[in-house]
Structures are given as structure tokens and as C-alpha cells.
Design brief:
By secondary structure, the protein is mainly α. The chain is built from 26 helices and 2 strands. The protein folds into 4 domains: 27-125, Four Helix Bundle (Hemerythrin (Met), subunit A) (Up-down Bundle); 137-279, no CATH class; 285-380, Four Helix Bundle (Hemerythrin (Met), subunit A) (Up-down Bundle); 385-643. It has a two-stranded antiparallel ribbon. The longest helix has 46 residues, at 3-48. The protein is elongated, with a radius of gyration of 31 Å. It starts with a helix and ends in a 7-residue tail after the last helix.
Length: 655
């Protein structure tokens, strides 16, 4: 099939999937909009109710009626939410909130109920409550001057040119008391939906990123420079209580909630990070924050009864949060790396098995504790010159050894068979793999976001394809082990079959063997780069160069050794090597699919040898045993057939 046909089919499939997903996406968008409206009203209820009621008495009748209406409308919209195991409890809590507002309950009680109800809805329906990326404050400042200054004023005091004619008055973003009750997500909802009965209109025509930028900007007007400086120092030293902040906690927790739960130091850290959210990703180990966040989502989804969503978050915690830092951690504390990997696997296993929420919570907290240890270690960790060299050397040797063994064997076979003209196919195969691997990495870095699951699926599928092709070629080579069989093959086929079918198989083996390693190798070197300094980076390059030369020497030695072997020994050695690589690739392929959540994980008490694809799970071990069984049957059959042929037709004796 031509490459043009493949591209056309891929495009058609993509368009078909898109058509199928459009109605579901529109339904989800409508449902999200209603949920956002509920959260928006609950946010205002939690903030403003206290200004309308005091000690059971109404202070402002119109304000109180508005709060009662917010509570009632929230209940109506909650009743329209999609079915969910927790929906009945959510409706019950919403009804209690309506009753408490009607009975003019204390402001603290109503605010707490509104916040808890809001949190339960977010957890149950996995509502997006944080921006997709770090807000652009420069763009937000431009939009604020264009859209907001006329009401809120250039400094955010609510004293813009049009404020004198407005009733109620525009919000004063400098009012620390009121802003302490507001979350960034609440501000985002206000900017998105507006406030009925006021001059505050919704700005749904702005992009989602632009609205988030304005929300973060508005949340920072009341912050004092000395508080931001205190927050910066505490953040960099990690001297605060509570889990490591992330975009979700920055947007959903109010300043008052942070103070009550974690203290004033943590509040200063949150104030600093809301003003400088880039600090979240400026550290070398920022993805560990993401891992912690995803584990929190996983346990919340699991408690809400959504097992598949919990599994998705657990997988993202490992692939997107921990794996990018894995090689960095190995260089500093290999045991800690192993412990985190073990806990992450255990979390996914508990979710697969439908364990109790309490058991999963205990395991998640254990993993988060280890992630905090890794954060502390990586915060201070810098590789020495020796460490940078050894780490760089190890990465390329580990990732490239399998590929170079396969390539050397394939090239030796082509040369030994006298088909040097076919070498171009093999060279195109591995060169194309390198080119496509680099393009994949560039696309993932600059154009599209290729998830960790996507990377693992690609690695797993290519490994399994390579394993299947290695079985085929290894069997084919074994069938030609005897010189008589090889000479007969050449005479009958005159090289035609080698050029048409087998050469393409060899080229594809070269491609898959190299492509599956390229992307991961680049990611590992990215992690190493962040651990080096200007002084130690020459050691990193030296390690990479040394590893490359070592691989070339190994490949050249295998090639030369293979060429000099007698024909029978050459075919036997090459077929055995390819068979071993088929077993290794099969185990590694299944392991990658397990990491991506495609294949279930069933841990067993067994040794772990990732370089050989041997991992302590039932699925990987059974797959490798199956491949070994297939190889045994395939290799035994031609041997018996050859012996039978020799018995029936013994070779003629020489004169």
C-alpha cells in the first residue's frame, strides 16, 4: 500500500471519529456550562451572604433575596445534572442550603455549606476548574485596560469613570477582606458568565485562556509587595504546610481557606504563586507537582464512583508527572525511584481490582509522601561532572544497545547473503526512524501535546510489531541454517524473494527497532539537561559521545564476527539473537501498554530486569513465555523437516 493511500485512510478515519465525537462534545459543553453556572452562584452565595444577614436578621432585603434566589436556582440546576452515584447526596445538601438561607442561618454556616457543595460537584463531575496552561499576564493587562478600567479603575479600586453611575458599585479588587473569600475560579466564572442585575456582563467571546488571565490578574490587586517577597522565599525553601500547590489548588482555594487549613505562611506562598504562576513550572521537577495533583484527582474520582476516570488520572500521574523525572531521580536515589514506581503501580492495581476507597487513599498518601521526598531531593540535586558523564553514558547505552544489536545482525545477514544492494533498504529503515523520532519529539514540544499514554502506546505497539517481525525473520533464517538449504534457496529464487519480501521485512525491523527508542531517549536527555550546569554540561556531551562510539564498536564487532562465521554458524547465531530480541521486545511492549492503561497489571513476586523486558507482572511474563513457545515450535518444525529430508534424500558423496 502506498504512503499516499495510508495518509488518505488515516485522514478519513480521523474525520469519521471527529464526526462521531461532535454531538458528544456539544452535549458535554452544555452540561459543563450548567455546572459552571451552579458553581458561580454558590461562589457568590458563600461570599456575599454574610453581608445580607447578621444574627438571624436581614441587613439588606434586596441583597438577601438575591442570595435566596441563588440558592434556589442552584438547586434547580443541580436537579438537571446527569445521573451520578453521588447526585442524590448533592441534591440533599443543596436542599439543606436552600432551607438554611430561608431560615437566615449564620453566615459562617451557609458559606461552609456552599463551599462544600461546590467541592462535591467539582469532584463528582470532574469539572475543569483550572487553566490549561499558565496565564499570560501581559495579554491580561491589555484586556483589563480595554474592558475593565472604565468600571473597576486602573488600580482595581472599583472607581473607574463609569462607576459613579452604577448601582451596585463595581467590585473593589483592593478589598482584602472580600477578596480573601473569593477564589480565582470564582473570578473566572464571573468574567465568563457575568452577574445578573449588575453592569458586570459575561465575556464569553474572550478565549478561555484570556478569561483565566483576567481572573488571575484581578486576584492579585490586593497583594502587598512584602507579602509576595515572603511567599517567594517560603516557596523556594519549601517552608510551608500542606501539599505542594498546583494550578487546581491555586484556582479553587480562597485565601481564607488556605489560612484556616494551613496557616499564614502557606497563604503567602499561594499569593506569590498566583502572582507568579510560572514559578510552578520553573523548577526542574515541576512535573512532580502535576503527579501529586493527578493522584488527588484519582482518589476524588474513585470516591465519586468513577473508576475509569480514576484510572486515567493515576496513569497520568505516572506518565506525565513521575516518568519525566525518573532518570533524574535514578541519578540521585535509585531506591526512591523504585519505591515511587512500585507505589504508582499498586495504586493502578487497586483501582483495577475495585478496592475500597480507604485502601486506595492510604496508598495514594504513601505515594504522595514519596513524591514530596523526591521533590526535596531534586530541589537540591545537581549532577557532578562524574555524575553527568555516567548518567549520559548510561542513558544512550541502555536505550541504544537493543537497536544496535538488531541492526548489526540485520546488516551482517544482508552482506553475508551477497545482497549488498539491499543494504539501502535497511539504512532507509533506521535513518527514517531517527528522522521520524525527531519530528515526533518536535511536534510534541511545539505543535501538539502528545500525552504520556500516547507515547507509551506508540512504544508498546512498535515493540510488539518488531517482536512479531523478528520472530518471522528469525524463523526464516533458521530455516536456512544448513548450507545446502541456503544454496538451494539462492538457486531457486535467484535473490528475488530476498529483494521483494524479506528485505522489506528487514527494513521494517530496522525502523521499528530504532523508532521505539528515539523519542524516549530525547526525553531522558531533556531531564538530564535540567540537572546539569554550565560547568557539567561538557561532561554530558562527552558521555553521549562515548556511548555513541561504544555502540558503534559493539555493532561493528558483531558485524565483523558474524561475517567471519561459517554459513551454518552464522545463520544459527543470527536467528538465536533475533529470537532473544523478539522475547525482550514482547515483554517491553506489554509493559508499555500497561503503563498506558491498555493492559491490566497483575504484580507477581519475580525479578525485575527491564533491560530484558522481564518485569514482575503476570501479563509481561506470560507474553514472553508465549513468544518462547512460538519460537520453540517454529524452530523445532524445520529441524525435524530437514532431518526427514536428509533421511529420504541423503546428499550425494563426492567423487
Amino acid at each position: 500500500m502506498s504512503s499516499i493511500s495510508v495518509r488518505l485512510i488515516s485522514a478519513a478515519i480521523s474525520m469519521f471519529i471527529l464526526v462521531l465525537l461532535v454531538p458528544a462534545a456539544q452535549a458535554d459543553e452544555a452540561s459543563d456550562r450548567e455546572a459552571q453556572s451552579i458553581l458561580h452562584m454558590l461562589d457568590y452565595l458563600g461570599v456575599d451572604y454574610g453581608g445580607s444577614v447578621l444574627f438571624g436578621k436581614i441587613l439588606n432585603e434586596s441583597e438577601y433575596q438575591e442570595q435566596a434566589e441563588f440558592a434556589m436556582q442552584s438547586l434547580k440546576l443541580i436537579n438537571r445534572l446527569p445521573e451520578h452515584p453521588l447526585l442524590a447526596n448533592i441534591i440533599k445538601d443543596a436542599q439543606k442550603l436552600v432551607n438554611d438561607v430561608a431560615e437566615r442561618a449564620p453566615a459562617e454556616e451557609v458559606s461552609a455549606e456552599a463551599r462544600q457543595l461546590r467541592s462535591n460537584i467539582i469532584a463528582a463531575y470532574n469539572i475543569t476548574v483550572s487553566p490549561r496552561k499558565i496565564p499570560d499576564f501581559q495579554r491580561a493587562s491589555v484586556l483589563y485596560r480595554q474592558l475593565c478600567v472604565k468600571c473597576h479603575g486602573s488600580e482595581g479600586y472599583g472607581d473607574g469613570p463609569e462607576s459613579k453611575t452604577l448601582n451596585p458599585k463595581p467590585a473593589n479588587f483592593r478589598d482584602a477582606t472580600r477578596m480573601g473569600k473569593r477564589s480565582v475560579y470564582g473570578l473566572y466564572s464571573t468574567i465568563s458568565l457575568g452577574v445578573p442585575g449588575t453592569a458586570m456582563v459575561g465575556f464569553e467571546k474572550l478565549s478561555d485562556d484570556e478569561r483565566w488571565g483576567l481572573a488571575f490578574l484581578a486576584s492579585n490587586f490586593h497583594n502587598l509587595p512584602e507579602r509576595l517577597e515572603l511567599g517567594r522565599k517560603l516557596w523556594e525553601k519549601r517552608e510551608f504546610q500542606g501539599a505542594l500547590p498546583n494550578l487546581v489548588t491555586l484556582t479553587t482555594l480562597t485565601a481564607n481557606e488556605v489560612s484556616v487549613n494551613y496557616g499564614d505562611n502557606t497563604r503567602a506562598v499561594f499569593e506569590y504563586l498566583r502572582a507568579k504562576p510560572n514559578a510552578l513550572v520553573a523548577s526542574r521537577h515541576a512535573t512532580l507537582l502535576f503527579a501529586t495533583e493527578q493522584l488527588d484527582h484519582a482518589i476524588a474520582s474513585y470516591q465519586a464512583g468513577d473508576k475509569s476516570e480514576a484510572q486515567r488520572f493515576a496513569i497520568a500521574a505516572y506518565l506525565e508527572g513521575f516518568e519525566p523525572m525518573e532518570i533524574s531521580l535514578v541519578n540521585l536515589d535509585s531506591q526512591l525511584r523504585f519505591d515511587i514506581e512500585r507505589e504508582m503501580m499498586a495504586i493502578r492495581k487497586l483501582i483495577y481490582d475495585g478496592a475500597s476507597a480507604d485502601a486506595l487513599t492510604v496508598k495514594v498518601e504513601s505515594a504522595k509522601k514519596l513524591l514530596r521526598e523526591a521533590d526535596e531531593l531534586l530541589r537540591e540535586g545537581k549532577l557532578s561532572i562524574t555524575g553527568a558523564f555516567i548518567s549520559s553514558l548510561f542513558v544512550l547505552l541502555r536505550e541504544g544497545l537493543e537497536s544496535i544489536l538488531v541492526l548489526a545482525a540485520v546488516i551482517a545477514f544482508v552482506v553475508k547473503s551477497g545482497q549488498r544492494s539491499a543494504l539501502i533498504y535497511v539504512h532507509v529503515g533506521w535513518a527514517g526512524a531517527i528522522l521520524l523520532g525527531v519530528l515526533t519529539w518536535l511536534s510534541a514540544s511545539m505543535l501538539v501535546n502528545i500525552s504520556g499514554a500516547g507515547r507509551e502506546i506508540t512504544s508498546g505497539v512498535t515493540a510488539l510489531i518488531a517482536s512479531a517481525m523478528l520472530i518471522y525473520v528469525g524463523f526464516w533464517l533458521h530455516d536456512k541454517t544448513h548450507a545446502q538449504a541456503w544454496q538451494k534457496f539462492l538457486k531457486e529464487k535467484v535473490g528475488a524473494a530476498l529483494e521483494k519480501k524479506t528485505v522489506w521485512a528487514l527494513a521494517l525491523i530496522a525502523f521499528f527497532a530504532v523508532y521505539r527508542e528515539i523519542f524516549e531517549t530525547v526525553l531522558f536527555y531533556q531531564a538530564l539537561w535540567t540537572q546539569t550546569t554550565v560547568d557539567t554540561r561538557p561532561a554530558l556531551w562527552s558521555g553521549m559521545l562515548t556511548a555513541g562510539l561504544t555502540l558503534l564498536v559493539i555493532g561493528w564487532g558483531l558485524f565483523r564476527f558474524g561475517i567471519r562465521l561459517p554459513l551454518n554458524a552464522f545463520f544459527s547465531a543470527t536467528s538465536i539473537l533475533l529470537a532473544i530480541m523478539a522475547v525482550i521486545f514482547a515483554g517491553q511492549g506489554v509493559a508499555s501498554l500497561q503503563d498506558a492503561g491498555i493492559v491490566e497489571i497483575s504484580p507477581v513476586n519475580f525479578v525485575s530486569l527491564p533491560m530484558l523486558g522481564v518485569l514482575p507482572t503476570t501479563e509481561t511474563l506470560l507474553t514472553q513465555l508465549a513468544v518462547i513457545g512460538i519460537l520453540f515450535l517454529c524452530y523445532r518444525f524445520p529441524i525435524r523437516q530437514h532431518r526427514n529430508n536428509q533421511t529420504e534424500n541423503p546428499p550425494a558423496s563426492s567423487a
